[in-house]
Amino acid sequence: MSVAIYLDYNATTPVDSRVVEKMLPYFTEHFGNPSSQGHMYGWAASAAIEQARIEVAKCIQAARPSEVTFTSGATEGINAALKGLAEACAHRGHHIVTVESEHSAVAKACQHLEQLGWSVTYLPVDSEGILDLDRLEDSLTDDTVLVSVMWANNETGVIQPIPEIAGMVRARGIPFMTDATQAVGKIPVSAEQVDILVCSGHKVYGPKGVGAMFVRGRVRCTPLIDGGGQEKGRRSGTHNVPGIVGMGEAFRLARLECEKDGKRLTALRDELENTLRQSGIEVRVNGAGANRLPQTSSVSFPHLEVERLLMSIRGLAVGTGSACGSGSRKPSRVLSAMGIPADMARRTLRISLGRHTTKQDVAHASEILIKAMRELSAKAA
Description:
Strand order of the largest sheet: 2-8-7-6-5-3-4
Shape: globular
Mean pLDDT: 95
Radius of gyration: 21 Å
Order of helices and strands: EHHEHEHEHEHEEEHEEHEHHEH
C-alpha cells in the first residue's frame, strides 16, 4: 500500500524523533513514580517533570513555571478551567462569555454549566471568523466571572486579536482564558497576556495523552480531579512521566524552530491556495482575509460533493473539519458561525501542513486535488 501525503497536522502530528529519544529512558531506566520522594528513582522522575515544566513555561512565555499544571490534554484542561473556575467563583457571579466558533470542548463544557444554572453568552464572529470587540465589551456585566476566546481556530487557522481582547476583559477585573492548542508552536504565544491558557502535546510533535494548563496565581479553580494531591493539588493522579518529558522536549523544539517553520509553511500554504484558485474550478478559502496560522487552509468547493472528492484523492490525508468532531454529519459549527451556508460547510476540506511537509508534497497534492476536481466537475456538467 502506498503512503498518502499527510496534510492533517491540525488533527495530530507525528512525534518528533528527538522527542521519542528523550522519552525512552523514562519507560525503562527512569521508571520511578515522582511522588516517591524517598529514593533516587522518584527524585529522577520528579526532576524530569520540573524540567519539562520549565520548557513548557518558556514556550508559552510564562514567567513562573509553577503556574503550569500538567493534564491529560487540552480537553481536560478546558474542562478543568471552565468548571473549576465556575465552582470557585460561584459566589461572585454566574455568567460566562465565549464565542460561537470555539472548539467543541469549550462549547460542551459551557453547555454543561448552563444545565447547572449558569448563563453563557456565545458571541458571533464576522465572515472572516473574527470576534467583534464592541460586542464583547457590551456582553460584559457585573455577573461575568470568565471570558474564554481561543487563540487560533482549529478549522480555519484564523487568529483572534488576543492582546486587545485580554486587555479589555482584564481591565474589568474579569479573568480571561484562551484555548491556545493550535497556536502554540506555530506562532508566538504569551501566557503573560492572559489568566488561563490551555494547550496540548500532540499538536506540537509531542505524544498524545498529555497537555498543560497555565493558571495565573491569583485565579482560583476548584480541582476537577481529586486524589493524591499531585501538581500541588491542582490535578491529582500519577504523573505520565514519559509523556510529560516528551511534551517538554517538543515545546523546547517548537520554541526554537517556530519562526523558521512559520515562514516556510506560510509560503507553502499560499502556493497551495493560489494553485487551487488558478485551477479553473471555483474554490473558496475560508478566513482568507484574516490573520491566520501559517499552515492551515479551510477550502470550500461550491460545486463539488466533498465525499466524492475524498474518494478521488485517496493519496492525500486531509480533514473535513475538527478531528474531535469526526463522525458527525452536522455542518461545521465554526463555518456556520462565519455565516457559511450548511451545504457549503459540508463541501469543505481542512488542509493543514506541518514540519515534514515539503514543496514536492504540496505540488503533488495540488495535482491530485485539481485532477479530481476537474473529473468531478466534468461528470456534474
